Amino acid sequence: MMADNLDPKAVGAHIRMRLPLLTPLEAKVVETVYAFRNFGPETSLKKVATEAGVSEAMVVKISKKLGFSGYRQFRAALVGYNALPTAEMHHELSPDDTSRDIVQKVFRASIQALEETLAILDIAAFDRAADLIHAARQLDFYGVGGSAQIARDVSHKFLRIGVRAGVFDDAHMMLMSAALLGAEDTAIGFSHSGNTMAVIEALQLARRNGARTIAITNYDSSPLARLADVVLCSTAQGSPLIGENAAARIAQLNILDALFVAVAQRDYRAAGSNLEKTMAAVTSKRKERFL
């Protein structure tokens, strides 16, 4: 499927998600295009090739590997994306930044991640993920590092409405969990890169045992995404200091907040009842409000 008619907000994310498919030289050509100060509708194929030090044929090949039918379509999509207000939001931090600059740049990186993630979100996949979670007899989450923290946050939300989930952040424990899953169960793997071997191996084993699998990742062509039944992608523009992981985690949390609501909606009465019970259970642990 060609990407020639993408929503402009999805163009940046679409290109970033396909960068892992490129060779280092091809990725450098894309970086050269991004670095053009006056890249516009009149920027010729020859100019890009000359600036990048490659042949015109290679630029066309890269355009196609990125999902476009050719250079003209790639150029048109990128010009449309660059014209968006959110495209100007992302600025790298510098040693001269004031505290106000820092706050604005970090917030803007997150705003851009949310805008672009919303633009690329596959609603059909989102609905299927909600159905699998709602129907699961056993629900297990796999993730390490920052991804494990997202998994814990999500399991806490689901527990409030009576959906219990096991969270595993150790490679051995993940495999033990996956070994016990079956056709009525669902496993969710969290990995920003989609390359975390512990999560990949656990999801592979869960799938071999008949469980349904969901991947939460930043790259739809990653090894984790390729083996999952359902893929939900976040996206964020990377930078050395702010990083793409931090902004992408915020986008992932928003996807999962929406997923929590969608699952609750599938049995609204039961979700409401369980929410009341869990809230009442912890009421005594809160200090009473003082006037």
Keywords:
291 residues, alpha/beta, Arc Repressor Mutant, subunit A, Rossmann fold, 2 domains, 5-stranded parallel sheet, 5 strands, globular
Question: How would you summarize the topology of this molecule?
Answer:
Layout (H helix, E strand, L loop, with lengths): L7 H11 L5 H12 L9 H8 L3 H10 L5 H12 L16 H22 L2 H13 L3 E4 L3 H15 L4 E4 L2 H9 L6 E6 L5 H12 L3 E6 L5 H5 L2 E4 L10 H23 L1 H15 L9
Parallel strand pairs: 1-2, 1-3, 3-4, 4-5
Helix pairs in contact: 1-5, 1-6, 2-3, 3-4, 6-12, 7-12, 8-12, 9-10
Specify the CATH homologous superfamily of the largest domain: Glucose-6-phosphate isomerase like protein, domain 1
> What percentage of residues falls in helices of 4 or more residues?
55-70%
**Mean of all residue-level pLDDT scores:** 88
Helix/strand order, N-terminal first: HHHHHHHEHEHEHEHEHH
User: What is the rounded distance between the termini?
Assistant: 61 Å
Q: What structural category arises from helix and sheet content? A: alpha/beta
Radius of gyration: 22 Å
Number of helices: 13
Q: Which second-level CATH architecture of the largest domain applies? A: 3-Layer(aba) Sandwich
What order do the strands of the largest sheet run in, or round the barrel if closed? 2-1-3-4-5
Number of domains: 2
CATH C-level class of the largest domain is: Alpha Beta
**CATH topology type of the largest domain:** Rossmann fold
Please indicate the percent range of residues in DSSP E strands (runs of 2 or more): 5-15%
Low-pLDDT runs: none
Give the tally of β-strands. 5
Shape: globular
Largest sheet: 5 strands, parallel
